[in-house]
Each structure stands twice: as structure tokens, then as C-alpha cells.
Fold:
Amino acid sequence: MIRIILPLAVIAVLLFAPMYNETVTGSEFGKRTDTLTGYDYVGTTIDCWRNQDFSITGKCEPQGDLKGKLIFGAVFISAVAAVLGVLGLLPVIGRLTSAVTTLAGVVVIGAIGYYVLTQMGGDSGPQAVQWGTYLTGGVGLLTTISGMAGMRGR
Structure:
């Protein structure tokens, strides 16, 4: 059951928790700070997929270049892991779902690690990286541990 809940938690945290504070200048309101979430990077891609346009190029491309693509990859593999986790309740498929859950956790940790490293080097510095980024890394680590425990038969 945990191999279903953790990938869904990764998706929720990635899409809706604050990840980065970006300073915007030159707007009608002067200088202000916008909080970015993962949905700001991959929202258009998810909307395209909901409308059955299964593409990640053109108008459906994630925003933010490689950061957006990695966030979309983390969301996608976590969704696959959650769906396979439901099928993994059957005894025969259990080990396969554990392997995919482990892979999902590793992808999430890698994507968030890249995101943190690139954003800390930005103009706003490390203080602009928000709690949602770190929470995503933690849930990704728990997902990896859960998948590895499942491969042991637990």
C-alpha cells in the first residue's frame, strides 16, 4: 500500500508545494516575488495529456528547459509507479512494482537535486529555494527506500 501512496505524495508535493521564490521586476506593481511550483513548469504538458495530446514538444513542452523536463519525468514515472503499485497488490507482480517504485524514487531525487543545484546558483541565491523542494527530495528518498524494501519481500 505504501508503494501506492508515496508516488502519489511525490506528485502532489511536486505539483503544488512552493519550490522557488522568483523576484520579478518591471511589472506594474514594481518589484515583487512570485512563488513557483512544479505546476508552473509542467502545467501545460499535464493539460495537454489530460486532453489526450500525448506530446512533450511544441505547445505541450514543459517550461524551464531541462528543469521542466526533469520535473515532468519525475511526475510521469511516479504516476506509473502508483498505477503499477495497485497492480502490485497481486503477488506475482509485486517485485516488478518494487523495481519501478525504486526507479521512481531515484528519478525524483535526481530531478530535485538538479533543480536545487541550478536554482541555488541563480540571482536570488539559496534562500529562494522553498520547503517544497526539500520535501520532494525527502519523499523521493522514502519512495526509494520503500521500493528497495519491497524487492526484499516486505
